[in-house]
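COURSE: Structural Biology Practicum
ASSIGNMENT: Worksheet 4, Part C
STUDENT ID: 0417
INSTRUCTIONS: Below are two proteins. For each, the amino acid sequence is given first, followed by its structure token string. Answer the questions at the end about the second protein only.

PROTEIN I
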Amino acid sequence: MIYYKTKEEIELMKEGGRRLKKVVNELKQKIKVGVSTSLIDELAGELIKKYGGEPSFNKVKGYFWNTCLPINEQIVHTPPTARVLKNSDILTLDIGFYFKGYHTDYADTWAIGDVRDKKVINFLNTGKLALKKAINAAKIGNHLGDISEAIENEIYERGYFVIKQLTGHGIGRKLHEDPYVFGFKNVPKAETEKIKPGLTIAIEVIYSMGTEKISREKNSHWSIITADKSLSACFEHTVAIEEKKTLILT
């Protein structure tokens, strides 16, 4: 069941998102070649506390970290480790912020160091554009399927692949709420939920350079990778639907 939020609840999520953006902006300044993902996670925890929140992710049963930090073929849910970032690595920062009873969720992927490979640059730019188009489709009168279609069209038209087993989601008092927000059209748009005021969702563009198929990373309970080891990326914003506009909370 979808839990639609009141204006007061959206205001709390808006403030949580504002604080999360500050965390992300400060954290990104520390992320560079030679830094381990465990250090990034430690800094993230310190910054979340500094800005008056709690980490969302360590509230997930069995997950003990503040962030997920996939690199290259790692797609999602990759815990931090002693692994050190190298020049040309593709890093995803996936981070959540819990503030006064409500979650916000955000992800970004970028190349570490000096990367001039146009193939990689075009790949990452596609995800950014797909997320922008998906957010534009998240408006009253449309259906969730319009968001899915926007993602699917952009990713496949550029020759990439949506990871269909991983989706966006509702968000609020729980990190993961109804509804699922697919990155592809699983049913006709008209059969999907109509977008109404009070809907708060985390829209995620999760895709790869070479395949739709996923695999579990060896020796990791959490980390999911591309089956062909091709590059993957994730772009995510938490948004809220109001009567007259759609707010990007993160």
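PROTEIN II
(use this one for the questions)
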Amino acid sequence: MTARLLFTNAGNAPSNNLARSLRTGADPVFLVGCNEDQFALRKSDADKNYLVPPTDHPEWVHALRWIAETESLDLIIPTVDTDVDDLSRVRSRLGEYLFLPRASLVEICRDKYRLIELLRSNGVDAPASYLVKDMKQITGIFRQLGKRPVWCRVRSGAGALGALPVRTPEHARNWIRYWKEMRGVPVNSFVLSEYLPGRDFGCQCLWKDGELVLIKTYERLSYLGTGSQASQVSSVAALAKTVYEPKVVDTCVRAIRSLDAKASGVFSIDLKENARGIPCITEINAGRFSSATNIFDLVGKQNMVKTFVRLAQDLPVDIEDSYDAAPDWYMLRDVDGAPRIFHASDFSDNIVNAWQGAGTRRTRLRAT
């Protein structure tokens, strides 16, 4: 039976990556895309595309329902955080097409400061964090955190929005002042946190009625766009590899269970190690797949997006071990190309080491 699915924000990288994952294997799918931007739609890999009103337009929800009924859809899949928020808001009118975490959990996860405080109060490892209520507090927060640098960031948003490591209170004040004056971000939208210097992990997991169904992990090794990022890091990895990290899995599972004993849907979780090597959760994206989902879908025994679709339709899934770890697979991403995935054993395929060849030639010349 063909699954008929609608992607929001069609044409962007996350939606096209989901399409790539779903089209692997024998299970047939019919993919529909929608976007308010007709130019973005020209990049969509969906089988059929619809131009829709902006999400704040009164006809937006009616347009989605009309598409769902016209195309006999099984499921609407949001691809960015704002889509999750907007669909969660209208779940009473589109609920039969959605497989989202509960609305209150989505709201908690959108506020990084509130989320971290809740995790820490439940004994889940997360960085010590303080809300900047006004500029006068910053020096005191630095004293409380102690070690330098300190991580300064906006409490909501994606892509390391407003994030920067700062060494002095004056660094923090200047950075926050810039965002306030140039970008209109209020002072009290910023958080100062413990700086986490260790390895950077991504974890994605699927839940159904409080039961963990599937979980996978990878490590970010380098980042896209670091040349233009003041923070020199990003949630988008240029090079990533799959890893077997039970400590990361344990932290993520405890986090979701502490937030919702009946959790359902997909959760993408970011973690970094602290100075003692303990993985700490920095954010949870509830209700949408990571833009790097191909490394979870195309490697290992289970395809996460396909499993998600089956769970949403109340179809059985055959998974013996919820932690599907397949180490040493790498994913390369760049701005203008599709993600490339390969195993460590394939590193040297079709590559000639010119240094070695040139050295051998010089040795032969000296011998003659």
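ANSWER KEY EXCERPT:
Q1: The two ends are 71 Å apart (CA to CA).
Q2: The longest helix spans residues 169-183.
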